[in-house]
Amino acid sequence: MTPDRLAAHLATNAYGSFTLTDAVRPGTALPVRPRQGYRVDVFRDPRARLRLPMLSAAVSAETLFDTFLALLEPLGDEVHVVLESSHGANGDAHTDLRRDHIDRPVLASHFCEFEELLTHDGCTGVAVMAHRVPMEVQFDEHKLLHVYAPNLKPFRRVLRAHDVRRRKQLPLISDAEHLHHTTDAYADEFRQLAMRVGVGDFDRVLSEE
After folding, report:
1. Residue ranges covered by each domain of the chain
2. What is the pLDDT along the chain (209 residues), one digit of tens a residue?
3. Distance (Å, rounded) from C-alpha 78 to C-alpha 95?
4. What end-to-end distance do the CA atoms of the chain give, in Å?
5. Dihedral of the CA atoms 194, 25, 176, 143 (nearest 10)?
6. Paired strand residues for 18
7. d(Cα 79, Cα 160) in Å, to the nearest integer?
């Protein structure tokens, strides 16, 4: 691919009615054409003997962040949070920073202050877990939404309310070759978010060691 064609590919942020954030682009051969929807599957962890229904959703950029916040509501008022960073990492390596026992409305307020980072940085992800029930909502580096819960109905209602419909076949951008985008400014913002949330060991994030 020529430099001009690559630049044009990276500048393309809409496929039909689906708009991508700045965080990620499909591979240059367009192995997956992004579209809105969600798919249902089962998460299995043989070591923990855990089996949970899960769903994965691709949501157009215009409503992505609002949909994420709405998906947090079924988790309850007290949650745990993990901030995920792959800034400066090699391969698939990333750093997870966790804080337990935080009020969900307070956490949502912090997220709103860093909406641009969470939505447009291809090296930042978050996971929010319910306090007493095995339920989790992820907003990952690909800007996909993943939900793990014994009962997916409350989360499916949220998605329908945001015009995100179930699809039997829904290839996701993370399923094939894709490109991530980040900046030094986003790396600094991630550190600020870690400090704001009060996660442990945030000084290790983006260290030069």
Report:
1. 33-202
2. 678 788 888 888 999 999 999 999 988 887 888 999 999 999 887 787 778 999 999 999 999 999 999 999 999 999 999 999 998 776 667 789 999 999 999 999 999 999 999 999 999 999 999 998 999 999 999 999 999 999 999 999 999 999 999 998 999 999 988 899 999 999 999 999 999 999 855 555 444 43
3. 23
4. 36
5. 40
6. 15
7. 24
CA distance 139 to 69: 10
Amino acid identity of 132?
Answer: R
Return the DSSP state at 135. -
The residue written with tokens 């819960």 in the block is 149
HSE-up of 15 (CA within 13 Å, CB side)? 16
Return the SS3 of 188. helix
Paired tokens of 138:
């992820």
